[in-house]
């Protein structure tokens, strides 16, 4: 079954939980016992409607405060696809969670309250979807029932948003506007009769038609996770390189170069469990063997010999900071780039994105929790890497605090 | 030779996670309950390291109240695949006075498993425990990371979890800490059953429709057994049932079902209006039952 990963971001007031609840309900993904539990909790809280956020806000603290704090994962399926929603909070203090949700997403839903139009939060959501280059963005203008399903309201919001979009450097991004009422179910799973002026699809129909696996092909990257050397007589000289294929497909016979050693060989076999294949597409976890007996270990990346990326002892990246301890020049972190780790020193902070996400940059000497800025790094050794805009797997990394071991930030090279 | 590998995204993700565990940790273990999810994990691990053997042992925390069918199945699987199985018993912790057996109508050894698990982690110095928990099972589990760091008391700090971005898993820990790893986090119950069907994976017989002596309490069907407390007015009847989820006898309720093949189970689940954990007695203790247990080190 096809799997589609979606990110949603927003606050309770946007009707985000109602939208998710509606998608679950209309695809019959909510079982009776879960529905009853929501009814019971809603009643206990004195609500006269079903509060679907009670199904997704899994932590006691979240239910107490009525807010989403952490990323929740919600699952539903249709006959065609399995959907995984990473549901994240929309407030500025949870930017890091939004980035986390968007990092996994093939499509993203930005909710706008029809009565309020484009607000600061919209800027932030759009900026993050842009930075992370989420290919498909649905701008769902919600609560259309509260503005009498007025086309003009929708068109005005769309025009405002398109001004925002005009500043985007990610031209291939596919932005679709859909007027909805999550509460009433208009244009969520079914097309609405209330808005005959809208000729597009419902949210679900749009998602059903997406086919992200066949899009966005880039250079192939195969980071080696582990070397398989079975200690069995029948596989005496066997050396298989286990990993997941990113960017593009890999074929038997392809000429490949091993990074960072720059030694070359050809793909001898592509194996998955006890079978061999001529070709495997991006996203496949496979084991490969090479024609030549060369030295390959975890952390190495196999690339096609005509697609070797740049290498340098420095790099510049947009960093979203996720730790309570601020990022400052001079500090050392471990960079995890694919399956490889190198020590890095913060050289300087070039600029910081203004927190109103107006597109302005500000100067600063440190990057604090939830801030995004451009950072220059010095590396302890040469690293082969891509620009994130050209290659997601080769152009992203996390920063690990060498004392606390926590994941302190994420970087997008370029 | 087959032409193009058709990728199953969930399977590919799980295999990727298994390989990260073996590369990033020194002493991993697979927590094996004999249920369908941990059986699925064994198959995925087999695929991840083929033609090598599964490079870590299995740990079964035995409450002593298991369905005999599960234990029989476990031993057969271990034998067939040449796996290394470690069993630790809740009974030992009770005998040593570390924990006290619950009494009364809802008594269960489910909570007591935590102590035995944490002791085993300490005994063998496991740094990664791979489990079959899924985010769709329960709303506290929906918040769980793929690599979930626990302190030396096994505690889950749910408000301070490491961000997980892209496929970049960070398994760096201090000595004494360990990581719980959930390779099938993103699978739903139906995904697991469809996979079992597709792969023709063998599972214990209690998952299939069978006759069993049972009684009804709080709308759930309980197994009549010497391990399960029963009031005199709770009448035992033979029913045609099967189990959708397998914990031990004291925490798992049966469902009435005629499904006697995997295909029939898959179609039953597709049309079911009750969730899988609707038959878990241990979850019904309170709305936050799972979150509380996880904070204490429960798997």
Task: Provide structural commentary.
The complex is a heterodimer of chains A (414) and B (299). Chain A has 414 residues and is an alpha+beta fold. Chain A has 8 helices and 21 strands. In chain A, α5 (95-103) runs parallel beside α6 (120-131). The mean pLDDT of chain A is 90. Chain B is an alpha/beta fold and 299 residues long. The longest helix of chain B is centred in the N-terminal third of the chain and has 16 residues, at 9-24. The model of chain B has no long low-confidence stretch (mean pLDDT 89). Chains A and B meet through α2, α4, β2, α5 and β7 of A and β1, α1, α2 and α6 of B.
Keywords:
heterodimer; A: 414 residues; alpha+beta; Rossmann fold; Elongation Factor Tu (Ef-tu), domain 3; 6-stranded mixed β-sheet; 6-stranded antiparallel β-barrel; 21 strands; 19% helix; 36% strand; globular; B: alpha/beta; 2 domains; 11 strands; 30% helix; 16% strand
């Amino acid at each position: 079954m096809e799997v589609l990963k979606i990110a949603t971001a927003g606050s309770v007031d946007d009707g985000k939980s109602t939208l998710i609840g509606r998608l679950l309900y209309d695809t019959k993904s909510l079982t009776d016992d879960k529905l009853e539990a929501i009814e019971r909790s809603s009643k206990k809280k004195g609500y006269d409607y079903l509060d679907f956020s009670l199904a997704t806000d899994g932590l006691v603290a979240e239910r107490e405060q009525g807010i989403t704090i952490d990323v929740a994962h919600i699952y539903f399926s249709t006959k065609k696809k399995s959907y995984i929603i990473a549901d994240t909070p929309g407030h500025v203090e949870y930017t890091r969670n939004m980035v986390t949700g968007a990092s996994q997403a093939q499509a993203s839903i930005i909710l706008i309250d029809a009565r309020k139009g484009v607000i600061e939060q919209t800027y932030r959501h759009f900026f993050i979807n842009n930075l992370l280059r989420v290919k498909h963005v649905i701008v769902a203008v919600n609560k259309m029932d509260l503005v009498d399903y007025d086309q003009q309201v929708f068109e005005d919001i769309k025009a405002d948003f398109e001004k925002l979009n005009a500043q985007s450097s990610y031209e291939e991004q596919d932005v679709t506007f859909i007027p909805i009422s999550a509460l009433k179910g208009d244009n969520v799973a079914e097309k609405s009769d209330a808005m005959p002026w809208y000729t597009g699809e419902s949210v679900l129909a749009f998602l059903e038609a997406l086919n992200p696996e066949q899009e966005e092909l880039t250079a192939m990257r195969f980071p080696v996770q582990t070397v398989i050397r079975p200690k069995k007589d029948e596989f005496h000289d066997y050396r298989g390189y286990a990993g997941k294929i990113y960017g593009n497909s890999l074929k038997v016979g392809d000429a490949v170069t091993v990074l960072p050693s720059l030694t070359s060989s050809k793909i001898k076999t592509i194996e998955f469990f006890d079978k061999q294949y001529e070709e495997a597409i991006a996203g496949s976890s496979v084991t490969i063997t090479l024609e030549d007996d060369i030295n390959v270990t975890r952390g190495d990346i196999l690339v096609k010999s005509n697609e070797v990326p740049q290498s340098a002892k420095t790099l510049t990246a947009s960093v979203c900071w996720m730790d309570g301890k601020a990022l400052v020049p001079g500090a050392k972190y471990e960079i995890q780039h694919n399956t490889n780790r190198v020590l890095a020193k913060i050289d300087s902070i070039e600029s910081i994105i203004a927190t109103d996400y107006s597109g302005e940059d500000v100067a600063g000497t440190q990057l604090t929790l939830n801030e995004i800025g451009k950072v220059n790094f010095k590396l302890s050794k040469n690293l082969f890497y891509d620009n994130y805009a050209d290659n997601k797997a080769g152009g992203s990394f996390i920063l690990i605090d060498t004392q606390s071991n926590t994941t302190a930030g994420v970087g997008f090279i370029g | 030779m087959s032409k193009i590998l058709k990728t199953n995204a969930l399977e590919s993700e799980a295999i990727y996670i298994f390989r990260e565990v073996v590369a990033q940790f020194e002493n991993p273990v697979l927590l094996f309950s004999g249920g369908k999810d941990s059986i699925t994990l064994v198959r995925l691990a087999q695929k991840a390291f083929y033609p090598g053997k599964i490079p870590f042992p299995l740990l079964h925390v035995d409450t002593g109240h298991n369905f005999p069918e599960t234990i029989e199945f476990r031993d057969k699987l271990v034998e067939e695949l040449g796996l290394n199985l470690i069993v630790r018993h809740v009974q030992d912790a009770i005998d040593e006075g570390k924990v006290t057996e619950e009494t009364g109508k809802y008594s269960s050894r489910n909570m007591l498993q935590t102590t035995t698990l944490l002791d085993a982690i300490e005994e063998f110095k496991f740094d990664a425990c791979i489990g079959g928990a899924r985010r769709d099972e329960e709303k506290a589990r929906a918040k769980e990371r793929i690599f979930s760091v626990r302190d030396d008391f096994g505690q889950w700090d749910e408000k301070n979890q490491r961000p997980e971005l892209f496929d970049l898993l960070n398994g760096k820990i201090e000595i004494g800490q360990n990581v719980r790893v959930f390779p099938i986090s993103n699978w739903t119950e139906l995904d697991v059953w469809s996979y079992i069907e597709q792969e023709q994976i063998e599972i214990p017989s209690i998952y299939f429709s069978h006759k069993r002596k049972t009684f009804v309490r709080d709308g759930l069907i309980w197994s009549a057994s010497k391990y399960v407390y029963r009031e005199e007015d709770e009448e035992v009847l033979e029913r045609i049932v099967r189990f959708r989820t397998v914990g031990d006898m004291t925490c798992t309720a049966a469902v009435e079902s005629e499904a006697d093949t995997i295909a029939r189970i898959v179609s039953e689940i597709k049309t079911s209006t009750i969730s899988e954990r609707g038959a878990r007695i241990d979850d019904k203790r309170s709305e936050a039952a799972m979150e509380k247990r996880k904070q204490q080190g429960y798997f």
